[in-house]
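Notes to self after the call with IL:
- keep both proteins in one doc
- input above output, always
- annotate only the second one for now

Protein 1:
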Amino acid sequence: MKNTATRQLFPYEADDSHRKPLSRSGNRLHGIIAEALDRDGVVILPPSSVEETLGIATAIGMFFDTIMLDPWYNKGFGGVQPDYMAYFLNVIRQSGKLADHVYYWGFPEIVAPFVERIPEPLKLTCWLTWYYKNNPSVIRGWRSSQNACLHLSRPGATLHPERFLNEKQLALKEQGKLRYMPGPTSVLEDKSWDVVEEPLLVGFVGRKEQTGHPSQKPQKVYDHLLQMTMSEKGVLLDPMAGSGTAGAVARHRGFRAILCDRSEEYTQLMEKRLGIGRLSIAREVAALLEL
C-alpha cells in the first residue's frame, strides 16, 4: 500500500464526527474479515503499517474491545524517529476512536511524556509495569529491568476484575456478600497486578515459547492485560503484532483477534506460530483505497 492512499483514510488530524455509510467495497472487506474471525478466531492481515491498518479498520466500520500498541521504543533496537511523539499521539488518537481500551507500550522514559498528552476521549486508567530480572545487556552499569504500559480507556469502558478473584472472593460473590469489587491492583492476595513480573524470553528461558522475534514478550505479560479488558468473544486488534503473541493469548482465552505487522518476516512468524495463513484481500483493499 502507498502512503498517499493511507493519508486519505488516516488523516493526521482524524475526525469521525460525520462518518459516512460503508461503501460496497468496505462492506465486502468487513464481511470477509468477520467471516474469517468466526471461522478461525484469529485473523492475520497482509503486511501493513500501523496507520494503514487503523485506516482500513476505520473505513470498514470495525470497533474493538482492545487495541494493543507495542511499537519500537525509539531507543536502541528499532531505531530513532524524530517525530516519535507526534506520530504516536496520532496513532493513539485514532485507536481511541476504534476501541474501548488501548494499551501503549514503551520504556518508562519514553511513555512518561505521553501521560499529560493523552488524546480525548481516552483517559489514563493505569500505569502498568512489566518487571524482569534477566536482562542480558553487556553494557557496564545500570541495566533496564522494566517496560511500561499505559492502559488508556474511553469513558464508561468495562473492566473485568472478577476474572482475578480468589476462591474466597468468588464464593462471597456467588452468595451476594462481596461488598465491593476489588480494583486491578488488589484483586489477588499478595499480588500487585499493576506490576507483572515475568522473565525475558532469552537463552533457555521460555525456549518453547520463543519464535525468533528479537523483542518478543512472554504470553503471561499480555494475558493479564487481555483478561482485564476483553469481553466474552470480544475482538482485539494488534496492528504491530510482531510474532503474534497477543493473538496466541487471545485464542487461548477464547477471545478473537485481528493481527497485522508491516514486516513480511514477522507476518510469516505469525502464520507459522498460529497455524493459519494471512487473508488474501489485496483486491478488496485496493478497491477501498481507490475511493
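Protein 2 (the one to annotate):
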Amino acid sequence: MNSRKLLIIHDSRVIRNLIKGFVLAELDDITPLEASSGKQAIQLVEAEKIDIILSAYILRDCEGHELFQQFKESEKGKNIPFIIFTSTSSDLHITEIRRHGIQHYLVAPFSSVKLRNKIDEVFDPRQMREQQRYSIPGTRAVIHTESQNINADVINLSMGSAFCEFALPSGVNDLLDSMYISVKFPPEYDEVLIGDIYCKLLSLKTVSWLPNDVPDKVRVVWLFKSLSQRNESMFSDVLDRVEKKIKSLQNI
C-alpha cells in the first residue's frame, strides 16, 4: 500500500512531534516528513513526492502565505494540497488567509480527530486508489459486449480501471465501444461480485496471433467511467482487506 506523504512545517521540534503523534495515532497510511523552515520545506518538496503540506502561519524565515505562493509558482509544489494552521481565530485573520488563496486552515489548538478529518478532506485516500494498482490472483472479469459475454483474467486493477487478458472470440467488433464489465474476486475475498461497471476502452494490445494473422489473446485496459455508490463501497471494502494483507506480510 502506498502511503500519503505529509510534510509538517514548524520552527519547533516539540510542535512537529506533537503533530506527528496526532497523525500516527489517527491515520495508518500517512508518512510524516518534517521541515523547520520555509527553505527546508521547498528543498523537501523538490526532492520528495509530497502529497499534503501542513504549515504554521509564521515561520522563522517567512510567513505561511508567502511559502504557499512559492509552492504555487513551483512545478512540483503547485498542485499539492496546502493546510495552514494558526492560533488566531478572528474573522479578520481567516479572511486574510483566504485572501492569499489558501482554502484550508486549522485553528490551534486542534484535536487529532480534527487534523485527521482535514487531511482526508484535502487529500482523500481514494484518490490514490484510482492510481494504485493491485494484483489479486484469481480475480476474473466478464466483459459484456452487445454480441456476447467474454470471460477475462484480471492482471491488475485500481478503483479507476482494470487491466485484463482474454482470448478474443471471433465476430467481436464492438470492443471499441463503451460497455459494462463485471469483476469477481476470488474466494479469499468472499467471491465479491461487482457488476455493471460502465467502462470505456483505454488501450488494447495483442499478445498472440492465430496462424491466419487474426488476434488470439489480447490485453485491454478498461477505464471506469462511473461506479455506483454501492459498487464503490464494495470495491473499497475489498481493497481495504487487500491492503491489510499486504501490510501484514510486510511486517513479517
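Annotation: The mean pLDDT is 88. The chain has two domains: 4-123, 140-250.
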